[in-house]
Write a structure and sequence with these properties.
The chain is mainly α. It is built from 16 helices and two strands. Helices cover 62% and strands 1% of the residues. A two-stranded parallel sheet has the order 1-2. The longest helix has 29 residues, at 124-152. The termini are far apart.
Length: 367
């Protein structure tokens, strides 16, 4: 388990309530448009009616269902209390400073509410654990790109991944001076790597990417779950699906072409769990289960490559295809690579392709 020292200053503390109050004073887009729609069209003093496209109305519908930060905070408080009841504990840390609950299932916005003690609803230990989980998420987002950067000698890849992660923050998080300072530092680092790709930037205050890249032990310090334990967990989950199907008077099936039976749901399993089924090291899984897991894993792999192709087309930079493949490779565990047959030779081919394409593009731009 992760050991967290709650005495350390929490960079997110004292921020959350400010943004909740600020947001509460602003009229929502939905209420504004509702007012416009209800205006009498024959009133000479009426404002011009708005005609929304289907896309705009869909976006409005999505925004209308987004929880306000006060609700997010209340739900986070309830979720923590539920975790305590399940684990039969009263604090997120034990006497040795080890975590007693797992916050990995909570979304980033909820974690931010806890880490900033929004509404004064959370203890210092809870803030520390949530802050630690947020740091782990940043490290997890950065890890594949950092490995790729070292492989191809271009640290702009790691900085771009950090920018993407930061830009995915909630409005409340983006409103903080901490986020703004971190975003500015990473942007400076990215600009520096565009000039000197093979050099880690230095001298940029508050640069989290440089700190990550220069610390060999950086990242999530949580002890990894063994592959055998993952297989046992997957077996239990499949058995639970089988029990549910039996209670419903159905057969659990793994072939989507079957006209009868209840189709097994593998969508909730991560890639390492699917790999545990495919490799079947403990001989816990049937041939049908192995085939279904391999099919799902191959589909996800193809989607990853397709995303890389689309990114290359969107950016007009063909090297992005090889880069996307390398980032996917770097994010895989050894078992995932074995299950999908992504060998070191495949990785090296993608790396060479990236370098060759980048060189050709540089020559063309120079010309």
């Amino acid at each position: 388990m992760t050991s967290i020292t709650s005495g350390l200053p929490n960079p997110y503390a004292q921020m959350g309530s400010v943004y909740a109050r600020a947001a509460a004073t602003q009229p929502s887009l939905a209420s504004t448009l509702d007012a416009a729609d209800s205006t009498n069209p024959f009133d000479p003093n009426a404002a011009t009616n708005l005609t929304l496209s289907d896309a705009a109305r869909a976006q409005l519908a999505n925004s209308a269902t987004t929880k306000d930060f006060t609700t997010v905070t209340a739900d986070a408080r309830a979720a923590l209390d539920g975790m305590y009841a399940t684990a039969n504990v009263t604090s997120p840390l034990d006497a040795d400073g080890n975590a007693t609950i797992d916050l990995s299932s909570m979304d980033r916005r909820s974690l931010f509410a806890i880490a900033t003690n929004n509404g004064g609803k959370f203890t210092p230990d809870e803030q520390a654990v949530a802050s630690g989980e947020l740091n782990n998420r940043f490290n997890a987002a950065l890890a594949p790109a950092a490995s790729t950067s070292k492989l191809i000698g271009n640290y702009a890849v790691a900085y771009k991944a950090a920018l993407d992660y930061l830009d995915g923050a909630s409005p409340e998080e983006k409103a903080t001076t901490t986020w703004a300072a971190q975003r500015a530092a990473v942007q400076k680092g990215y600009q520096a790597t565009e000039q000197s790709p093979g050099k880690i930037p230095s001298g940029i205050a508050g640069d989290p990417v440089a700190a990550y890249l220069t610390q060999p032990a950086a990242g999530d310090t949580t002890a990894p779950v063994t592959f055998g334990d993952i297989a046992k967990g997957v077996r239990a989950a499949l058995d639970a699906q089988q029990d549910a199907a039996t209670r419903a008077g159905k057969e659990l099936v793994f072939d989507p072409g079957r006209k009868t039976g209840q189709l097994a749901d593998l969508s909730s399993f991560d890639n390492r769990s699917l790999s545990a089924i495919v490799l079947n090291q403990g001989e816990m899984f049937s041939n049908q289960e192995i085939y279904a897991a391999k099919t799902e894993l191959n589909t996800r792999t193809r989607m990853s490559i397709l995303n890389a192709l689309q990114q290359g087309q969107k950016s007009g930079d063909p090297s992005q295809v090889s880069l996307g493949i390398l980032n996917t490779y770097s994010s895989m565990s050894d078992e995932e690579r074995q299950a999908t047959n992504w060998t070191p030779a495949f990785r090296d081919t993608a790396a060479q392709s990236y370098k060759t394409t980048s060189t050709l593009l540089s020559m063309l731009r120079g010309a």
